[in-house]
Amino acid sequence: MSDLTAEGCCVRNAGIALLVGMRVVIRAREFESLTGIVRWLSGEFCGVEFDRPLRGAVVDHLVHLHATFTPERHAVG
């Protein structure tokens, strides 16, 4: 997961056939499962819009825990 914001994130596709508009569940150890909709696809990456926005403190905590998480305000490209 990268480019994390309260509204969504970029996810690396783990070999799963995804389509724009598809509902997905993102599971990680640090937080409960997140549900959302695939909004875009580009190669092995996709953009997911969360069903419910994350609180700012949650985003900050996850970015602090994982150096690979880039908050959108600092994302390059």
TrEMBL record:
<protein>
    <recommendedName>
        <fullName>PilZ domain-containing protein</fullName>
    </recommendedName>
</protein>
<dbReference type="InterPro" id="IPR036859">
    <property type="entry name" value="CAP-Gly_dom_sf"/>
</dbReference>
